[in-house]
Amino acid sequence: MIVGVLALQGGVSEHIAMLESLGVTARPVRRPDDLVGLDGLVLPGGESGVIDRLTRLFGLRAPLQEAIASGLPVLGTCAGLILLADRILGAAPGQQTLGGLDVTVQRNAFGSQRDSFDTVVDVAGVGAIEASFIRAPIVTAVGTNAQVIAQLPDGRIVGVRQGNLIGVSFHPEVSGDSRLHSAFVQSIAARV
Ligand code: GLN
């Protein structure tokens, strides 16, 4: 199994290490050709406005949107969730998303870098996992096509799923808990 990690900016190496620890071949994706033959894709955290601009600069925007539309399983963490959302609040000037998840996401919903925190989040179908929230977004509205898979105790939505797309506000790869990646890999294996 080959799982790509969009490698334009942000926390790429943590995802690659985590996928490899699960016995998966992880491939950094920098050019459209890198998408060929992938069984799944991770969109990492970072700065979603920067990643958005770089996808256009590197000719990756349309190929990524085609891959998503064709049903490629995609896991987006933090900025990756923002890239997958159909609608964003607090976008950088000119910022676009790839889309795919019928949700609205609020960027930087927990305040600044200093307001970053770690906590345990219960993810449907995965269990309670260790999660780092780093200038994280939250999901403020969920359309009829998407499903909530994770909420904080106060009800704020931090994980959603729609078909083969999963988006979470937090970074399981930073806290080192591989169960979400493992569930993602297993769901890919079940399709292959
Ligand atoms: N605040 C970032 C953004 O809006 C996301 C932060 C992260 O990925 N850790 O893109």
From TrEMBL:
Keywords: Glutamine amidotransferase, Hydrolase, Lyase, Pyridoxal phosphate. One of its GO terms (biological process) is L-glutamine catabolic process. Pfam families: SNO. L-glutamine binds at G46, E47, S48, R107, I134, R135. InterPro entries: Class_I_gatase-like (IPR029062), PdxT/SNO (IPR002161). GO terms for cellular component: cytosol; glutaminase complex. Pathway: Cofactor biosynthesis; pyridoxal 5'-phosphate biosynthesis. GO terms for molecular function: glutaminase activity; pyridoxal 5'-phosphate synthase (glutamine hydrolysing) activity. Its EC number is 4.3.3.6, 3.5.1.2. The active site is at C78, H171, E173. It catalyses: L-glutamine + H2O = L-glutamate + NH4(+); aldehydo-D-ribose 5-phosphate + D-glyceraldehyde 3-phosphate + L-glutamine = pyridoxal 5'-phosphate + L-glutamate + phosphate + 3 H2O + H(+). Belongs to the glutaminase PdxT/SNO family. Catalyzes the hydrolysis of glutamine to glutamate and ammonia as part of the biosynthesis of pyridoxal 5'-phosphate. The resulting ammonia molecule is channeled to the active site of PdxS. PANTHER family: PYRIDOXAL 5'-PHOSPHATE SYNTHASE SUBUNIT SNO, PYRIDOXAL 5'-PHOSPHATE SYNTHASE SUBUNIT SNO1-RELATED. In the presence of PdxS, forms a dodecamer of heterodimers. Only shows activity in the heterodimer. This is Pyridoxal 5'-phosphate synthase subunit PdxT. It comes from Microbacterium mitrae.
